[in-house]
Amino acid sequence: MPKVIYQSPDGARTEIDAPVGATVRNLALANGVDGIVGECGGELMCASCHVYVDEQFLERLPPVQEEEDEMLESTACERLSNSRLSCQIKMTDELDGLLVRLPEEQL
Ligand code: FES
Q1: In this predicted structure, what is the pLDDT of residue 12?
Q2: Which residues have CB under 8 Å from 50's CB, separation 6+?
Q3: Do 100 and 8 form a contact (C-beta atoms < 8 A)?
Q4: Which of 4, 8, 100, 106 has its CB 3.0 to 4.6 Å from that of 37, i.e. a possible disulfide?
Q5: What φ, ψ does residue 66 adopt, rounded to 5°?
Q6: CATH superfamily, domain at 3-101
């Protein structure tokens, strides 16, 4: 089973076993990882599931679609080139070890 690693702004890391197909947002909420709110339930209506994806994994993710791109304009913390919405990242075997950094705030 692939793993996803969440890194808090203070550097603390939480590693979670991720069933293939689960989203990085849902895994965080289901496992009590602080730092992802995801208040719209993964419907691309909030941007409170913002994460910074480690550069080495960026190319393995599907490209940002138009709706995600628009929502990324309203993140609480600065949008960077590696910003993604975690509700749009579904785990695959290829993403094993995925490292996402959590922003200082989501709202
Ligand atoms: S949970 Fe709302 S956009 Fe991802």
Answers
A1: 98
A2: 72, 75, 76, 77, 79, 83, 84, 85, 86, 103, 106
A3: no
A4: 106
A5: -55, -45
A6: Beta-grasp domain (3.10.20.30)
- The per-residue pLDDT for 24 is 98
* Chain segment 6-35, per-residue pLDDT in tens: 999 999 999 999 999 999 999 999 999 999
Ligand 1 atom with minimal separation from the 38 CA = 1
* pTM for this predicted structure: 0.97
Q: Is 43 helix (H, G, I), strand (E, B) or coil?
A: coil
Judge if the beta carbon of residue 20 lies within 6 A of ligand 1: no
Quick one: CA torsion of 2, 97, 46, 66, rounded to 10 degrees?
-90
Q: For the chain, give every domain's residue range.
A: 3-101
Is 2 near ligand 1, meaning CB less than 6 Å away? Answer: no
- Which atom of ligand 1 lies nearest, measured to the CA of 71? 3
Query: Comparing C-alpha atoms, which of 39, 22, 16, 38 is closest to residue 84?
Result: 38
Q: Quick one: pLDDT at residue 106?
A: 98
